[in-house]
């Protein structure tokens, strides 16, 4: 593994599958790892709100015998009161890892370049790699072979969509992404995914037709129409994205029994109806649970030594 976990693109195929395989083991036998990060501390810089990410990193460190320290958006005012560089140069004297949720991807790259300790991307405007790793782990649990999987993403071509494409490229998944015109995934991420996917059998279809995207889907994924930081665009986006709602009619166009996925938080009644998110095919809380298991493995691989286990 590299020093940091910033983008799934940075992982080798070996790393990608090692994270998934070790997560199977750790989830089945968490007690074996309860001292794996003993005496390790993780600083968690949050510049945006969170439920799942904060809870799963904090509980994850607890379960590995270490400790996590929450820095709220007002704590230290990273990047305002003090630069990312200076904050990093301080933190590395006290803690063994940094998790960061911020706006610009460049903030994470700057922080990672400044410090010798691992930096974990816990969401930027561009990427949400921990989420996508947990999602592919969940798909592997539920469906099996990721290379035989057909995954449809319907909605905004955002950070979650980008990381899902990069994970799909490593896994060799067939992906279809439906977005309104003007809200497509960024071309540079599409290019990276296509390049990474050349050796795995990955395929990617981009469309503005949700029905076309879900036609062969084993799983249908959506996310909020306005991400954190885009609150001012909420009304306009609600109008533009309305035809992209995942509802009973759209799910009926997917494969019979197709799963429903969402990174959460969900805006019920917007991107997904209650009927779909509360239905038996919805695996959204399994995804949320698996954030814990996958991130424990990521922290262990970056901060720990596997021989410490047991
Ligand atoms: N999915 C996710 O990252 O949730 P939070 O924003 O609550 O952390
Ligand atoms: N795209 C969403 C994901 C939240 C986990 C956001 O960035 O707000």
Description:
It contains twelve helices and nine strands. It has 310 residues and is an alpha/beta fold. The chain folds into two domains: 135 residues, Rossmann fold (3-Layer(aba) Sandwich); 157 residues, Rossmann fold, CATH 3.40.50. The strands form two sheets. Strands 7-6-5-8-9 form a five-stranded parallel beta sheet. Strand 6, helix 7 and strand 7 form a beta-alpha-beta unit. Helix 3 crosses helix 4. The C terminus is likely disordered.
Reconstruct the topology from this structure.
Blueprint: H1 13-28, E1 41-46, H2 52-63, E2 67-71, H3 84-91, E3 97-101, H4 105-114, E4 119-121, H5 129-142, E5 150-154, H6 159-171, E6 174-178, H7 187-196, E7 203-207, H8 210-214, E8 219-222, H9 234-241, H10 248-252, E9 259-262, H11 274-277, H12 284-303
Parallel strand pairs: 1-2, 1-3, 3-4, 5-6, 5-8, 6-7, 8-9
The structure holds phosphoric acid mono(formamide)ester and norvaline.
CATH class of the largest domain: Alpha Beta
Instruction: Give the tally of structural domains.
Output: 2
How many beta-strand elements? 9
Shape: globular
